[in-house]
Amino acid sequence: SQEQQSIQAANDIKGFAIQNNQGERLGEVSELLVDIEQGKVGYVVISSGGVLGMGEENYIVPFNALTFDQTQNALTLDMQKEQMQQAPQGDVAEALDREQGRQIHQFYGVSPYWEEEGAGQQPDQLQQDQLQQQDELQEQQRIQEQLRSQQQERL
After folding, report:
1. Is 140 helix (H, G, I), strand (E, B) or coil?
2. Beta bridge mates, 29
3. Which of 77-91, 92-106, 125-139 has the highest average model confidence (pLDDT)?
């Protein structure tokens, strides 16, 4: 079976509904913030509340905190509406610095995208993967040592 590519034009994502796991609407995508150097979508700006752009709240949410729900054609954020209202605010007009970015990622419980190897993984999963890689590397080194010592014995 062929995997369907999940590439979308940025303009198509604007206006996507954002909902939580309970199906409660949190807002909609008003902007995508792209990290040009990394070649990744870093954040989604979610606009919530307000009428005709007045009194609207804008939340900068790490892209990797969202999951795409194909059945609803919406993005899901695992957060209650009240929780989201406590989110750190960033000024979209200004480039977020790494420290602001780190605080925002921490609030939403995901690793900063610029530190990730496996996009979208939870921090503890990332650490487990890194530990597993270290273990595998140590095992390879141990095997190489054994082979070297066996070769030395033969000589």
Report:
1. helix
2. 46
3. 77-91
